[in-house]
């Protein structure tokens, strides 16, 4: 792997685009995609749509035209080898390895702190590694607008235009337009709202005043850290201690000592929501297609895999026979799978675990994972 330090400290340029650094948090197991996604091989390491690229590779590729080599990737220690195989471009100094999960506040906060120590004028953009986005050009246009808006002193979220009344996403209420050069769609954020009930979600959709909160943030690193310090001072102090040692020989010792002591909190609660209350958050309403591939129903919807008589089949060499059936089969074995007279089925066949459910119940797969964990069957998780 390339060990040359890719991020040069002290980079200052008039154009905010030249101060942009991409941050890719790659965490979470994706329990609703078990047994395909597991702790040792989470969903971002898989090609779940048949595109030919894993989710993390696709994330890097759509950010690279904007950031170049200015990319930090935050992931777990256990995923280092797999991530480096898929993204050999990431410099060692820009690979941030968590010794244990600490939620997005610590993950994104540490990236902000490292960048601040290297370049206090940096503008960071955080984009999760497990999302499917198209067309890429519309995404990149929205990020450019977010960068120009962030340069005016704002934390900017990219809001996704809702396509249906989803109860699975948080929402952003769009406020008054902002006059930002290079960002005609920039608006103030009136407020963040949590995942709503079906009735409330339908009201949001009908009003046209809300976007989905996709968890994409673009912000000056000093402003991110300002709000982190104000709202989570213990987390801020710990992250800054690690960041100050990051580009020194003490990196590993300090990280291993401090990281386990950090509080767990989502970046939304630690920074975004308090910053919105302070009037420091803007939104770029975007109209590209976005999905976080949260369950097998999403894979069935997004995958370009071939269909066998109305059943989508994913897996090299999968041996599937269907008759009067619909749904999706994901196979990692050479076992013959025959479906006869069954509708909207989900079958996921791996060498040591078999899942059978329906598209309508795919969100409940997490309960199977919780149950197996409670029974002590952790070898398949």
UniProtKB/TrEMBL annotation:
Residues 324-372 form the MannoseP isomerase/GMP-like beta-helix domain. The keyword RNA-binding does not apply. The keyword Nucleotidyltransferase applies. GO terms for molecular function: mannose-1-phosphate guanylyltransferase (GTP) activity. Residues 22-305 form the Nucleotidyl transferase domain. It comes from the Bacteria. Keywords: Nucleotidyltransferase, Transferase. GO terms for biological process: GDP-mannose biosynthetic process. PANTHER family: MANNOSE-1-PHOSPHATE GUANYLYLTRANSFERASE. This is Mannose-1-phosphate guanylyltransferase.
């Amino acid at each position: 792997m390339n060990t040359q330090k890719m991020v040069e400290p002290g980079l200052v340029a008039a154009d905010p685009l030249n101060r942009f650094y991409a941050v890719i948090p790659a965490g979470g197991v994706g329990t609703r995609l078990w047994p395909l996604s597991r702790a040792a091989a989470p969903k971002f390491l898989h090609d779940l749509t048949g595109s030919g690229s894993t989710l993390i590779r696709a994330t890097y590729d759509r950010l690279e035209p904007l950031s170049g080599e200015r990319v930090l990737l935050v992931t777990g220690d256990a995923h280092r080898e797999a991530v480096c195989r898929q993204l050999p471009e990431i410099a060692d100094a820009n690979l941030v390895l968590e010794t244990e999960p600490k939620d997005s506040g610590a993950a994104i906060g540490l990236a902000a702190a490292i960048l601040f120590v290297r370049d206090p004028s940096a503008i960071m953009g955080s984009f999760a590694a497990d999302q499917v986005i198209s067309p890429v050009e519309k995404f990149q246009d929205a990020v450019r607008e977010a960068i120009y808006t962030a340069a005016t002193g704002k934390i900017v979220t990219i809001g996704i235009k809702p396509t249906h009344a989803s109860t699975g996403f948080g929402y952003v209420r769009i406020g008054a337009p902002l006059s930002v050069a290079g960002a005609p769609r920039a608006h103030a954020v009136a407020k963040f709202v949590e995942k709503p009930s079906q009735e409330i979600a339908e009201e949001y959709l009908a009003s046209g005043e809300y976007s989905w909160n996709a968890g994409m943030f673009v912000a000056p690193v000093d402003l991110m850290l300002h709000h982190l310090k104000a709202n989570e001072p213990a987390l801020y102090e710990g992250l800054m201690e690690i960041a100050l040692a990051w580009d020194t020989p003490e990196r590993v010792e300090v990280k291993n000592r401090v990281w386990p002591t950090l509080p767990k909190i989502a970046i939304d609660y630690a920074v975004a929501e308090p910053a919105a209350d302070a009037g420091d958050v803007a939104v770029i309403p975007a109209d590209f297609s976005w999905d976080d591939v949260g369950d097998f129903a999403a894979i069935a919807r997004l995958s370009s895999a071939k269909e066998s008589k109305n059943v989508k089949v994913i897996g090299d060499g999968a041996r599937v026979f269907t008759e009067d059936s619909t749904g999706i089969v994901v196979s990692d074995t050479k076992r013959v799978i025959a479906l006869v007279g069954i509708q909207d089925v989900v079958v996921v066949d791996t060498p040591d675990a078999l899942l059978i459910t329906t598209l309508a119940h795919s969100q409940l797969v997490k309960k199977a994972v919780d149950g197996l964990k409670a029974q002590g069957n952790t070898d398949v998780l």
